[in-house]
Structure to design on (79 residues):
């Protein structure tokens, strides 16, 4: 599944078999976000994770920061 992008935000849903797998993914996302100095909004419900990216200091729009972080998150899902 790809990111759903509007001018204001990028959203992607991820599905995992259980809460532990979802949290392991989110821990990796946290490391990548810290490396990029840009942090997603996170919703975690059992094995479902929704990440939302927007750049607040640019007026809640999608910027290169969001695009770069989305690509780095996508890389976490690569086999």
């Amino acid at each position: 599944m790809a990111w759903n992008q509007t001018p204001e935000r990028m959203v992607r849903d991820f599905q995992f078999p259980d809460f532990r797998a979802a949290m392991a993914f989110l821990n990796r996302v946290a490391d990548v976000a810290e490396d990029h100095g840009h942090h997603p909004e996170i919703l975690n419900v059992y094995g479902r994770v929704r990440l939302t990216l927007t750049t607040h200091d640019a007026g809640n729009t999608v910027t290169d920061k969001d695009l770069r972080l989305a690509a780095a998150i996508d890389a976490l899902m690569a086999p």
